[in-house]
Amino acid sequence: MELTLLGTGAPAGLPRPDCRCAACACALGPDARAAASVLVDGALLLDLTPGAAFAAARAGRSLTGVRQVLLSHPHDGPAVEVPAGLPQPGRVPDGRELTLLTGHRVRAVALDAPGTGYAVTGPDGQRLLYLPPGGAPAGLEAPAEPYATVVLDVLGRPDALARLRETGAVGPATDVVAVHLDHDVPPGPEVRRRLAAAGARAVPDGTTLEAGAYEEVPDVPRRTLVLGGARSGKSVEAERRLESFPEVLYVATGGSRNGDTEWAARVSAHQERRPGSWRTVETCDLVPLLKDDGPPLLVDCLSLWLTDAMDTVGAWDDAEWADGGERALRDRVRALTDAVRETRRTLVAVSNEVGSGIVPATASGRRYRDELGRLNAAFAQECEQVLLVVAGQTLTLRG
Q1: pLDDT computed for residue 257 by the predictor
Q2: Would you please indicate which residues are annotated as catalytic (active-site) residues?
Q3: 363 to each of 255, 310, 318, 369, 370, how far by Cα in Å?
């Protein structure tokens, strides 16, 4: 089964008409995208968009063999003109199945938002799932048979991909292709980086894919360290890396700090950002979690873990530090990094980068800064990917 993506952008396209944002200004060449539309084996057209016939011609395809046109989402604005020879667009009621003379079977998938998803089975038995912008499947049952190819709004609805993974509809061999790409994420390297973290990819308009064929997609890094200064966006970046995966265990190392209203507001803001399917545990005892099997871990953050460790070994007192405290802290850091090396779990950890700021005025402050630098370096050594977040922009240091 061949899929030609006549367009891969949001309904308004990319760049958006009359939009002056930086993302739209950079959406040039292969990063310019028409509204998403998929031609299946030249016989089935999913979503009719303006200029579909010209888009097909540019891709070396023709719409003359199209036997069915299906719409997946509400279309705002003036009605799209139907090119001569094409059948009138329609929809399949949720849960119903349509069989074409070409041997394709199309089942309508109910969504949690307006619109319809389509599960297409080709004459060769390969299976495709196409979802509209802003939509995620509703009422999925596990276990599900994996699709060969899934085409969906990865950046806008990462939780849709998480649901599909949870039920088995997206497996290790599924080719996850992002469409409905909009100006919320800068086009080019940043889009590719975010999609790679979700195990997905984007392709230019006009690309033809073969369902079931092997596609080399970057593997999701198993261990990632995200560094950054205060309010740099490092926690948002860390959470974003796991939002397309179900059952994440969020490990908060900061505690509740009873009576600290400012800290409570910070914690609340973090909680509101997290998907509802994530669980949270408050602990600094990270080694047992790393040794256990289970869902991905998001540890936020190592700098607070270090504060707890230095409290435990008496690192703030010079006498205790000299009399075994330093050695005890080194042992704790070594046990943590050894556990990171041996863990089988997917891990994303957050830490502060404080070495580039003002030199602390106190000896204990300088000791903490130095030990955090050592911890970050040792932890990074065990990670496949290391990121630095500055002013909300993510720089890849490794991986």
Answers
A1: 53
A2: 270
A3: 25, 14, 9, 10, 11
